[in-house]
Amino acid sequence: MSRYFKVDDFYIASINNNPVGCFALIDYDPTFWPDVAKGTSLFIHKLAVKRCGSKQGVSKALIDFAKTQAVKLGINEVRLDTHQFRDKVRAIYEREGFICVGERCLYEKYHTAFYVWKTKTNIIHIRLATPSDAPDMAEVHMRSWEVAYKDIVPEEYIQKQNEKRPAMWQRIITDDNTTQYVIQKDGKTVGIMCVVPRPQDEDADDTVCELEGIYLHPDSYHQGIGTKAMEFAFDIAHGWNKSFMTLWVFSENANSIKFYKKLGFAPDGKTKTYDMGKVMDCIRMRKEL
Question: Is 42 helix (H, G, I), strand (E, B) or coil?
Answer without folding.
Answer: strand
